[in-house]
Amino acid sequence: MSAQTIASGSRRPHVWEDLINDEIREISPYYGGFAGLGERPALLCIDNYNAVFGDRAEPLKDAIKRFPSTCGPSAWAAIEPTKKLMAAARTAGIPVLHTTRAELEPTFGPGIYSTKRERPRNNETEWNYSLFSQLAALDTEVVIPKPRASAFFGTALGARLTQLRADSIIVCGNSTSGCIRASVSDAFMNGYGVCVVEECVFDRNTLSHKVNLLDMQMKYADVMFLDDVLAYIEKLAR
Asked: d(Cα 86, Cα 5) in Å, to the nearest integer?
C-alpha cells in the first residue's frame, strides 16, 4: 500500500497553505506528487532530546533563555501526536530508531556541531541530550548519536536500515528546517521512500517550518497527516 493511495483522500490544507499563491499551486502538480511508502518502513525519531523541550511548557522567548536549543510550544504540541505514531509503529512491529546529538561523544572530538549557531558549552549536559521521557527509546530500540544535522552523516544508520531491510522511512522529530530536512534529503539520495508526518515535526521558527515542509513535499518526501500515516501502518500490519 502506498502513501499516495492513502493521502489522495485528504483534502485538509497543509500548514504552508497560507504562504503560497496561485502560481505556486499551479506548478505544484509537476513537483509535489506522492511517491509512496514501501512494505518495510522504519520509523526514524530525530533528536527528541530534553533540550528541545526544556523542563516545562512555556513561551519560546522565556524557554530559550534557559535552553538555547528549545523549540518551545511547537515541541510540546508535537508530543501527543508523536506518542501515537510511535505506539502504532511498535504495535505493528515497525522498527523504531532514534537519534540524538553527539556533541558530548568523545569519538567525534570538539568542534563537530550540527549547526553553526553559537552555543554556551556549560549548557551542554548529559540531561540535555538524553531523550525526552515521553518519547524515549525502549530498551530494544537503537539510539544513534550524530555529529551533524543529517542522521546519515558519520553514523551507522545506513547499516542499521540495511540490516532491517527497510525500503522506506517515516520521519518525526526536530527541527524541520535543520536535522529533519538534512536527514530527509540524505534518505532520498540513498534511495528510500520518505514520509514526513506533519504533526510530528517541529521548529522554533514557524516560517522555516512551513517553507521547509513545502519544499520537502515538492522534492524529497511525502508530507502526510498523522491519521493518514496511522491508517497506512494499520493496513500494513494487517
From this structure: 22
**DSSP string covering 18-40, please?**
GG--HHHHHHHHHH-------SS
Cell of 12: 485538509
d(CA 227, CA 235): 12
Residues 114 and 136 sit within 8 Å (Cβ to Cβ): no
Q: Is 117 helix (H, G, I), strand (E, B) or coil?
A: coil
pTM for the full model?
0.89
Q: Are 157 and 151 in contact (CB under 8 A)?
A: yes
Which of 45, 71, 172, 179 is labelled catalytic? 179
Q: What is the mean pLDDT of each run of 10 residues along the chain (238 residues)?
A: 40 91 85 86 98 95 92 98 98 98 62 56 75 98 95 96 98 98 98 98 97 95 97 93
Check: CB of residue 172 under 8 Å from CB of residue 200.
Answer: yes
The domains located in the chain, with CATH, are: 3-233 (3.40.50.850)
Active site residue 200: no
